[in-house]
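Section 5: illustrative case.
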């Protein structure tokens, strides 16, 4: 077990640092805009929820490249990695058009949220600026998927740290103004993020042509048009993955949209809790990505027993660390919230929500790590169904019933934003349990196939069949 934990940790810590650097974008945005105005902070919370829903669901489709590449890398089929990457870049181009239209014309979603007039203009401006950075964000996801798949997460981490170093000065300039630039408030941090995304994309794509580990793939050695067979294979895995990301993220997005009806102060408190929960989420996410890489490489090399052991140890590692985080947050909760805002009303609104975050993070760690391990097996459809039932049905539906006291019997302490967060916690527990049970079924199937003479030659076909389930 300890050998596996060391392997996972060696890949997970660069991913964690890189992800923390990216999530720090949101922390910096929240803290700086919170000191500009409460209205801009609420608009930031609403706008970022919509943007993340679009961005994560689209990049989720492209993330299918990671398990595909990792299995090919484990099987030493390097030239196929280059072809899969070129096809993924074509997908990114198509997804850019879809995402741009949604972000540049967000009025239908804002109408659904019944956004107050004071927030509407600022939220639209924020999203329209981010729309122009979406192509770069998708291109960088292709780069990061390849780097993680071949066990080189440091190449991603270095760029993400560099981006964070640029974020604070650019935010200061665009949010508060100076040197001929007017104070833009919340939309200013969107402008900073867009500029940084383009820098990341250009550097990342350049590294794919220069770094030694990528050269055997010949990614840009020749031009190719889209190949339907490869596109279809990526979409069979990527669409369910993107949908699962969409379900996961929109469960939070619609929380923000519904919580917006309780007023600006409640929404600002929710934004603090959501942002802090996202910071905690980065550790199990990193462990999941690292575990997925090692599991996929083991499957590509036809070592299903090693893949199952790596999966089990990665999931256990994430849950144990989540318990430790919970104890620390319980002790430091007031100090954490005060670091976000000095507003006493927002502090009071955020305090009970962060307490709930402590407990739901444990279930969040279980579900996200298990989901990534299943993706290494090229399994995506059944996990998506589990997500839909748990997160949309129990989390969002239950949250609406509790938060708005639909039945008229909800206790006062479960109404409002707290009802949404409690239901969300329950949904993550259900999702985590369902995914864990399904992983046991899938991994046992691979073990049985590996023990059967002649089955290893058909491992890739079995994986594609599983992806359709």
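Designed sequence:
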């Amino acid at each position: 077990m300890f050998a596996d934990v060391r392997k996972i940790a060696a890949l997970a810590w660069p991913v964690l640092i890189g992800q923390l650097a990216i999530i720090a974008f949101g922390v910096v945005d929240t803290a700086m805009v919170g000191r500009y105005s409460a209205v801009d902070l609420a608009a930031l919370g609403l706008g970022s929820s919509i943007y993340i829903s679009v961005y994560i669901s689209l990049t989720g489709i492209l993330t299918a490249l990671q398990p595909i590449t990792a299995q090919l890398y484990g099987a030493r089929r390097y030239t196929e990695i280059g072809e899969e990457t070129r096809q993924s870049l074509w997908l990114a181009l198509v997804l850019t058009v879809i995402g741009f239209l949604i972000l540049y014309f967000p009025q239908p979603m804002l109408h659904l949220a019944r956004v107050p007039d004071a927030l509407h203009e600022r939220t639209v401006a924020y999203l329209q600026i981010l729309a122009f950075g979406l192509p770069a964000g998708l291109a960088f996801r292709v780069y990061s998927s390849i780097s993680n798949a071949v066990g080189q997460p440091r190449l991603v981490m270095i760029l993400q740290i560099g981006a964070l170093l640029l974020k604070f000065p650019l935010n200061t300039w665009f949010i508060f103004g100076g040197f001929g630039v007017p104070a833009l408030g919340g939309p200013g941090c969107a402008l900073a993020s867009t500029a940084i995304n383009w820098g990341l994309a250009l550097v990342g794509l350049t590294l794919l042509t220069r770094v030694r580990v990528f050269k055997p793939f010949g990614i840009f050695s020749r031009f190719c048009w889209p190949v339907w067979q490869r596109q279809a294979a990526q979409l069979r895995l990527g669409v369910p993955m993107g949908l699962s990301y969409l379900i996961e993220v929109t469960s939070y997005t619609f929380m923000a949209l519904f919580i917006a009806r309780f007023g600006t102060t409640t929404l600002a408190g929710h934004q603090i809790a959501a942002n802090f929960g996202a910071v905690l989420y980065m550790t199990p996410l990193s462990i999941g990505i690292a575990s997925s890489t090692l599991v996929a490489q083991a499957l590509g090399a036809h070592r299903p027993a090693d893949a199952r052991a790596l999966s089990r140890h990665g999931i256990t590692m994430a849950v144990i660390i989540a318990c430790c985080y919970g104890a620390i947050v319980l002790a430091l909760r007031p100090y954490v919230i005060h670091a976000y805002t000095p507003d006493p009303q927002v502090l009071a609104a955020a305090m009970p929500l962060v307490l709930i975050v402590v407990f739901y993070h444990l279930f969040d760690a279980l579900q996200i790590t298990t989901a990534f391990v299943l993706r290494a097996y090229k399994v995506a459809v059944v996990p998506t169904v589990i997500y839909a039932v748990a997160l949309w049905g129990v989390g969002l539906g239950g949250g609406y019933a509790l938060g708005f006291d639909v039945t008229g019997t909800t206790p006062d302490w479960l109404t409002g934003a707290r009802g949404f967060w409690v239901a969300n916690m329950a949904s993550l527990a259900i999702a985590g349990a369902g995914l864990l049970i399904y992983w046991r079924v899938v991994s046992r199937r691979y073990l049985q196939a590996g023990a059967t003479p002649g089955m290893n030659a058909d491992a890739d076909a079995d994986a594609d069949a599983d992806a359709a389930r």
